[in-house]
Amino acid sequence: MQKNQDLPELHSLSKNLTFLRKQKGLTQQEVSAKLNITYQSYQAYELGTSAPSLVNFIKLAKFFDVSYDSLLK
Question: CB 3.0 to 4.6 Å from 56: which of 3, 20, 27, 52, for a disulfide?
Answer without folding.
Answer: 52
